[in-house]
Amino acid sequence: MPHSPAQLRNYHGKGKQGKGPDKSRGKKQKKPEVDILSPAAMLNLYYIAHNVADCLHLRGFRWPGAPKSKGKNKT
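-> structure tokens emitted (75 positions)
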């Protein structure tokens, strides 16, 4: 007796992955306020920034007339 596709999906443990309506579709999740001066953020910045200009650039403070970044970098 052949199995239905739904039974096969459940058999493999995959089920619905990202398909169908989302329960929280109408609500946008609010991003938590992040303190960029917290000790953890400062320690992270210490390891990724090489100078003050780099630090400000990584935190989103760019100089006027700066070229737009075209890479995968979100900042």
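Residues 58 and 74 are 10 Å apart (CA to CA).
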